[in-house]
Amino acid sequence: MDHLDRILLSGIYNVRKGKTQLHKWAERLVVLCGTCLIVSSVKDCQTGKMHILPLVGGKVEEVKRRQHSLAFSSAGAQAQTYHVSFETLAECQRWQRQASKVVSQRISTVDLSCYSLEEVPEHLFYSQDITYLNLRHNFMQLERPGGLDTLYRFSQLKGLNLSHNKLGLFPVLLCEISTLTELNLSCNGFHDLPSQIGNLLNLQTLCVDGNFLTTLPEELGNLQQLSSLGISFNNFSHIPEVYEKLTMLDKVVMAGNHLEVLNLGVLNRMSHIKHVDLRMNHLKTVVTENLEGNKYITHMDLRDNQLADLDLNSLCSLEQLHCERNQLRELTLSGFSLRNLYASSNRLTAVNVYPVPSQLTSLELSRNLLECVPDWACEAKKMEILDVSCNLLTEVPMRILSSLSLRKLMLGHNQVQSLPALVDHIPLEVLDIQHNLLTRLPDTLFSKALNLRYLNASANSLESLPSAGAGEESLSALQLLYLTNNLLTDQCVPVLVGHPHLRILHLANNQLQTFPASKLNKLEQLEELNLSGNKLKTIPTTIANCRRLHTLVAHSNNISIFPEILQLPQIQFVDLSCNDLTEILIPEALPATLQDLDLTGNTNLILEHKTLDTFSHITTLKIDQKPLPTTDSTVTSTFWSHGLAEMAGQRNKLCVSALAVDNFAEGVGAVYGMFDGDRNEELPRLLQCTMADVLLEEVQQSTNDTVFMANTFLVSHRKLGMAGQKLGSSALLCYIRPDTADPTSSFSLTVANVGTCQAVLCRGGKPVPLSKVFSLEQDLEEAQRVKDQKAIITEDNKVNGVTCCTRMLGCTYLYPWILPKPHISATPLTIQDELLILGNKALWEHLSYTEAVNAVRHVQDPLAAAKKLCTLAQSYGCQDNVGAMVVYLNIGEEGCTCEMNGLTLPGPVGFASTTIIKDPPKPTTPSSSSGIASEFGSEMSTSEVSSEVGSTASDEHNTVGLDAGLLPRPERRCSLHPTPTSGVFQRQPSCATFSSNQSDNGLDSDDDQPVEGVITNGSKVEVEVDIHCCRGRDLENSPTLTENSPTPCPEEHARGSFFGIRRQNSVNSGIFLPVSKDKMELQKSPSTSCLYGKKLSNGSIVPLEDSLNLIEVATEAPKKKTGYFAAPTQLEPEDQFVVPRDLEEEVKEQMKQHQEGRPEPEPSEEDRTELPEEFDTAL
């Protein structure tokens, strides 16, 4: 009761049910909520039975026989009455006034959509004032007490929505509701409409989209008041003839049907039709029966068809034409009334319009094969917008650039080498000339185009900029200037002063070495400044005068001094990564607006604890972690390294997340992922934290890449739970692992994706796409599948107006239109594979595969490469979230890490090695240094979110002791040269965390005596080892022991059996601690099992005397080996092998004894008869 909304009054009163006095008075909780009176037990008001009395249309009367009492009655023949006795007159009057208002209400609109109803609630039939009833997305039945066959009881009903109810059959009795003016029956699986529909003479709007209709009944022509008829996404193969009788209709809306031929003669007989929508049909030809023109059609939409040539010259009144995404080579139109023409994404080489369209205001011809701007376009006197980007233009006509009406000109992605000089003033406001071959801009551009607000000249070969004006006072109105990826030098900076209204300035990837302080001082209106990818050593101190600056991006320079930007009142985003910063001077108080500070890639930067405390309030702080000691398990990561960049753009939140695990599945693989939630940030975060764990579990269940990748996506989709009901996310997952199928390849790359995130492999300098884009515009097969399943695709090409993707994780309420089934591809990696690029939709919309690969091929740092891609996308016009990950590959013999190739490994007991490996690999889990920290920032690390529990240890096998001797360490091999099959069994590294306050038998460990030389770790002791079963001699040549292996011969018994432990993720990897057979005779009960060695808090494992019981058995660890969070634990910074000083002599003595060779104990007679056991025990 406490959670009810719209509670008006409530209290505990004496209540009697019924009009007669047969019932007794009882104390009850009475609530006036919304339009109902709720009566329930006082004691069990939360869980007990509630009596709900609808008051609309009912009565509230005073009870004369009892003082301060009211009688509440519902409406209808079977009305119920409750008498309520109040304590005071004032209270009684307050309830009477409030209840009288409820009773007098008249409900005209009832929305019962998405309630899983099978019938209409009975009490609604007593309200005769309902005029609109919404029953969308239910399971309404026909023959039930409140079913659809009883809706005729609503005598005043005018609007009825029954869409998405899967009715299958048309409810014929609906045709008896003569008052209906609006009827929506979309997506119900109808194959035909009954002839009785002609009885709805008052019907004005009829929507039957998303069914299986092929014809319309002739009786539909009786509906002379019908002004809107929707039959989109059905199975019509021609325009129904009944349209000729429906003279009130002015639109033919038949998108998503099966029309292959458009007969203009049929439309000529329909003089009342002005708009024709035939999107997403199968149109291939347009037929004209005679030369008679059509003077009535003004709007035509033919998008997403299969037209090769289109001649609509007979439509002399045509004002607007949409014909995008066809296969048009030639287009012919009449220009008498043409106002808007949209013909992008075709193969047009010629566009013929006659006469010259004097009313044309917008012309869009982008993504075609035009070599020149049509002559008639140059003569259009009222054209305001011209988009001819992504064509084959080599020049721009003078008449276009000097047009007195043109306000927006898009010329990007062409082959223009120069622009004509301007003589007269022009009203141009937006000019986009990016991705051309320009070496200079017209000298009079800024002086003649005084209204120019936006200029994008990125990706050209500009070496200088024209002056803003002749005099000191500049009249320039330029606000947004993008000059990224040119050849500009310091000489262009003084010219910028002539644009005092600049708000956004992008000068990334040029050749700037300095930015004069006096020039920056004059750009007081600057809000966003991007200087990344240059050779700057400092940012001028005068940047402090740019009081409106909120974004500074200056990564990939040589900046050594932190700029004075922390005093700016509106600063929000600062990116100074990949520079030479050494220290930061922090003011006393940081601006409260600062949200994102990126300092990664500054190898010489050292931040003190005081500085980090000052930055604690920042939402996202990205800094480099301290380099971890190189361990044996991370040697294989020298084959790859990654860098990540994520930028929010002009959005106030980042809806892109990434996953990066350089050492995955025992350190012999890697996992990288990209997740884009479009408008939501919840799902990408969930997938970032959990998808690698799901993959790890699935990899252990199957070795088939198609199987475990598909299962990973399906399980992740299911685990989204309620968050994935209405939210969705694109997902891309790349898994690198040793290739067991192809002997010529060392590693294979498996890529799976749904949505619009893509992965591109650079092989020999050429891009190789590995993923598939699941969108309605780019995948015709998927678009046809969605159409066949009768989804409604809106004009902006979105399924039900929600998303353009056809496959996603989440959005389960859009099933079966939206599926989580991924596209999967497997590629063997070769020595020619240089890098892998992962990006979201926004990145690939603004960068081609070739440009992205060429942009980062020669960048040494993968982090700088990823930053560069995001910067390029933003400078090319991206205003949305953009994310890029670059993975550098070093697959070849030069990347070998075997000992035989010269790599020196640590000594037997972990003493320091003289070999230094440069550029140590990044941590196995997403770290802030790689940008994965994203917005976890100062709150918590990603490792705490993704695998806080960790993989649990297993104690299913018998635990045994350890001998103090050491076995010869086998030769270290890399994944390129794997070790031949031996008797060593390896399992996934696991981590068991135990409370240090409890011993293995559950008693208080405070009774144990502290051991000298052993450092405690606070409240937890973490043990992480791998157990290997092997024999003491000839490890590499001995066969693997299994439970079903035959009884060994006496010679094998004479050698003795050994039990080895190898420490993963530590510098003492490869060291085996033997256990003689007699140690296995210990009792197997958990309370008496013990091991002879203690893992210190710093990660070391020291073999000790048998009498010292320093490693406690993990008997309380969960027995489940894998699970939802069964990911490899990350290597802690202090996790390195350290031998206490007081034990050094003992360890050296043990090594000396081992080298001299000790006699092996003779196995007992009992040992000879036992089968060898396989142990798999995690400590």
From TrEMBL:
Q: InterPro entries in the record, alphabetically?
A: Leu-rich_rpt, Leu-rich_rpt_typical-subtyp, LRR_dom_sf, LRR_domain-containing, PH-like_dom_sf, PPM-type-like_dom_sf, PPM-type_phosphatase-like_dom
Start-end of Acidic residues biased regions: 1162-1179
Q: Where is the composition biased (Polar residues)?
A: 978-1002
Q: Which UniProt keywords apply?
A: Leucine-rich repeat, Repeat
Q: Does the keyword Signal apply?
A: no
- In what ranges is there compositional bias, type Low complexity? 925-953
Q: Where is this region: Disordered?
A: 916-1009, 1124-1179
What spans are recorded as compositionally biased (Basic and acidic residues)?
Answer: 1148-1161
Q: Which Pfam families does this chain map to?
A: LRR_1 (PF00560), LRR_8 (PF13855), PP2C (PF00481)
Domain PPM-type phosphatase, residue spans: 641-889
Q: Which domain of life is it from?
A: Eukaryota
- What name has this protein been given in UniProt? PH domain leucine-rich repeat-containing protein phosphatase 2 isoform X5
Identify the species of origin.
Answer: Acinonyx jubatus
- Gene symbol? PHLPP2
